[in-house]
Amino acid sequence: MDQTRVLSIFLSVARTSSFTQAALAVGLTPPAVSRAIAQLEHHLGVRLLNRSTRKVSLTDEGSRLYELADAGLRLLDEAMDQTQYSKQEVAGLIRIAASHSFGNRQLIPLIRQFQKLYPDIHFDLLFEDQFTDLVTAKIDVGFRSGNEPGANLIARSLGPIGLSICASPDYLREHGTPTSLAELLTHRCTGFRHPNTGRVVPWELQIDGEFIYQDVPAVVSLNQVEAEVRAVRAGLGIGQLPDYMIAEDLAAGGLVRILPAFATSRLGIYMYYPQRKQLPTRVRHFIDFVMERVRDGRLR
């Protein structure tokens, strides 16, 4: 029995509470995952999982093994990384998760600059708008817009996200420019459907120094920020959009900012990664590179 491989499969099952999801994570079929767990249980002489038709949960013995094996395999990974990639030879693969909008707009140009310095570091990019579990997805570094990621993660702020209300010149010529919240609510608007909740997100507005959350009459709802930007640019309606996504449109006159007093910048963009005593050298170089660009104002 390949103990390291079987323990990795067990950890995937424990993290996802699902043979099917664990199978996707480790590249096996669900029956193969089930057989590996049964083999491990037979080898140890204890039951590690409670199985039902709907869910898999850890027994007390399974919980103890999870705590010990998770820490042990992390140390093993770090040892292998430190051995294989010395400070003199910075090479290898970095796995990154980010939203579609940040990934396409900011991350790809950033990686191009980084690889000019470290051409032997390669990247595996996962773009999705849901929050990504770094451990389950085996991600080294994640980027997230919104609130600061939670506990058990190291989060580095890359800066605030300004949200501005804007429309295309064609839309404003046809429908006029609202000058108050009451007028805004009579206009055609776009909405963003949150990928985690499936609900259309209310607009966050700052009025008289206070934040309010306002539902708007959305004539079209979209689940990707880039698509919403295109919809507003095409004149479908008024939208509330991140400043980093529309800076070029505003400068070129393709979009016009309206009701600027309502703009907010409470949310932020964060880089986050697992708490580890020794990050692989290649990952540390990338994190330092990103933060250097933030300090220099070259990442917005």
TrEMBL record:
PROSITE patterns: HTH_LYSR
Domain of life: Bacteria
GO molecular function, one term: sequence-specific DNA binding
Protein family membership: Belongs to the LysR transcriptional regulatory family.
UniProtKB keywords: DNA-binding, Signal, Transcription, Transcription regulation
Gene transcribed to yield this protein: pgrR_5
Keyword Transferase: no
Pfam families recorded: HTH_1, LysR_substrate
Residues of the HTH lysR-type domain: 1-59
GO biological process, any: DNA-templated transcription
Signal peptide interval: 1-22
The protein's name in its UniProt record: HTH-type transcriptional regulator PgrR
